[in-house]
Automatic annotation (TrEMBL):
<dbReference type="Pfam" id="PF11890">
    <property type="entry name" value="DUF3410"/>
</dbReference>
<comment type="similarity">
    <text>Belongs to the D-isomer specific 2-hydroxyacid dehydrogenase family. PdxB subfamily.</text>
</comment>
<dbReference type="GO" id="GO:0033711">
    <property type="term" value="F:4-phosphoerythronate dehydrogenase activity"/>
</dbReference>
<keyword id="KW-0560">Oxidoreductase</keyword>
<dbReference type="GO" id="GO:0008615">
    <property type="term" value="P:pyridoxine biosynthetic process"/>
</dbReference>
<feature type="domain" description="Erythronate-4-phosphate dehydrogenase dimerisation">
    <location>
        <begin position="298"/>
        <end position="373"/>
    </location>
</feature>
<feature type="binding site">
    <location>
        <position position="266"/>
    </location>
    <ligand>
        <name>NAD(+)</name>
    </ligand>
</feature>
<comment type="function">
    <text>Catalyzes the oxidation of erythronate-4-phosphate to 3-hydroxy-2-oxo-4-phosphonooxybutanoate.</text>
</comment>
<dbReference type="GO" id="GO:0016618">
    <property type="term" value="F:hydroxypyruvate reductase [NAD(P)H] activity"/>
</dbReference>
<feature type="binding site">
    <location>
        <position position="151"/>
    </location>
    <ligand>
        <name>NAD(+)</name>
    </ligand>
</feature>
<comment type="subunit">
    <text>Homodimer.</text>
</comment>
<keyword id="KW-0664">Pyridoxine biosynthesis</keyword>
<comment type="pathway">
    <text>Cofactor biosynthesis; pyridoxine 5'-phosphate biosynthesis; pyridoxine 5'-phosphate from D-erythrose 4-phosphate: step 2/5.</text>
</comment>
<feature type="domain" description="D-isomer specific 2-hydroxyacid dehydrogenase NAD-binding">
    <location>
        <begin position="113"/>
        <end position="265"/>
    </location>
</feature>
<feature type="binding site">
    <location>
        <position position="184"/>
    </location>
    <ligand>
        <name>NAD(+)</name>
    </ligand>
</feature>
<keyword id="KW-0963">Cytoplasm</keyword>
<dbReference type="InterPro" id="IPR020921">
    <property type="entry name" value="Erythronate-4-P_DHase"/>
</dbReference>
Length: 388
């Protein structure tokens, strides 16, 4: 069995090597020709598995049997084409959700530090309350931060039984929140389409002083309209991890964003290995084989497992220090500027992703609290830290 795997998927050898011949290719080189001789394909979001690719996979000497994506999102895979040919499919829902929430909180706390405000003083609007949005809501609740939620499909499904205290429509959320966090999938058509969900009209309505953070899909925001708003009044802030036309993103928009990163919000080692293992387990089930490799066997010990805090720290400062112990968003912001200017935008963007340094999640950090810092225990536990 020939298994084509994105070369940047970690632990591919450990998980898939025992199942067949492994062929590792850069994600952007996994095309119709590569699928023609593949029995199994395992990709990330940068690889487009469209109808032509699926048809090519079915036309080879050994028809395509299974496609897996080690990502939460699936909009890069034509699942209808897979279903039409009876090809198995699996994604990795929730695999990197904790890492994305680390990114969101780290970015907001960094921006608050730079601009001189407190996150606790803001009302946060979450657009898309799925694996990421729900986790973000819970962590913000641990900080006693008021949240509004906008998720029409979930609101329709749950009705009055919704666990989120308050669902509102998008325009209400824009009007009433100081921070807007987008965590939506890309849906191009239908009653809940998200392509350019924030269009020029909505971007123009955003109140002065608002922070817009997009860690969902780049096409959910009209990039040109956002660039014009940032270049004009310059009265809102933007944190952008996802972009239209990746990897050849708009350099002018990159320069105007307060924090600009190369689609790495979920790039923790934990999230990547979790995604690999979820697809491996699904493929094993598809083949009728036991999943012998465990996730625990893939995860190494964290390089900095313990932090000691004493008294004298304000809650947000303590949380900022804990987050930066495992992940500092400023590193990724600086890397995108450096590499895109040195190598060109598209090559530099992809290089940041391909050569991404080790990053762990906040849940791997144990925090010892001494003296007056012990009162921080509920906050840090609510953030996912292990408090000793």
């Amino acid at each position: 069995m020939r298994i084509v795997v994105d070369a940047n998927i970690p632990a591919a050898d450990a998980c898939f090597g025992e199942l067949g011949e492994l062929i590792r290719l850069p994600g952007r080189e996994i095309d119709a020709a590569a699928l023609r001789d593949a029995d199994v394909v395992v990709v990330r979001s940068i690889t487009r598995i469209d109808e032509a690719a699926v048809d090519a996979g079915m036309s080879g000497g050994s028809p395509l049997r299974f496609v897996g994506t080690c990502t939460i999102g699936t909009d890069h895979v034509d699942m209808r084409a897979l279903a039409r040919h009876g090809v198995g499919f699996a994604s990795a829902p929730g695999c990197n959700a904790e890492a994305v929430v680390d990114y969101v909180l780290g970015s907001l706390l960094t921006l608050a530090e730079r601009q001189g405000w407190q996150l606790a003083e803001r009302r946060v609007g979450i657009v898309g309350v799925g694996n990421v949005g729900e986790r973000l809501r819970r962590r913000l609740a641990a900080m006693d931060i008021e949240c509004l939620a906008c998720d029409p499909p979930r609101a329709e499904a749950e009705g009055t039984e919704a666990v989120v205290p308050r669902f509102v429509d998008l325009d209400t959320l824009i009007d009433e929140c100081d921070v807007l966090c987008l965590h939506t999938p890309l849906v191009r058509e239908g009653p809940h389409a998200t392509h350019h969900l924030l269009d020029a009209q909505r971007i123009a309505r955003i109140e002065s002083g608002t922070v817009l953070l997009n860690a969902g899909r780049g096409d959910c925001v009209d990039g040109l309209a956002l660039r014009q708003r940032l270049a004009g009044p310059g009265d809102i802030s933007a944190v952008l991890d996802v972009w239209e036309s990746e990897p050849a993103i708009d350099a002018a928009l990159r320069d105007l964003a307060n924090l600009a990163t190369p689609h790495i919000a979920g790039h923790s080692l934990d999230g990547k290995l979790r995604g690999t293992h979820q697809v491996y387990a699904a493929l094993s089930r598809h083949l009728g084989l036991p999943a012998r490799v465990t996730l625990d066997s893939l995860l190494p010990a964290p390089p900095l497992p313990r932090l000691v805090l004493d008294g004298g720290l304000e809650p947000e400062d303590a949380l900022r220090r804990c987050l930066r112990t495992v992940y500092d968003v400023r590193r990724d912001h600086d890397a995108l500027y450096r590499e895109s200017r040195r190598r060109g935008m598209a090559v530099g963007f992809d290089a940041c992703r391909a050569d991404y340094p080790l990053r762990r999640e906040l849940s791997t950090l144990e925090v010892e609290l001494r003296g007056g810092a012990r009162e921080l225990a509920p906050l840090l536990e609510g953030m996912g830290c292990r408090v000793g």
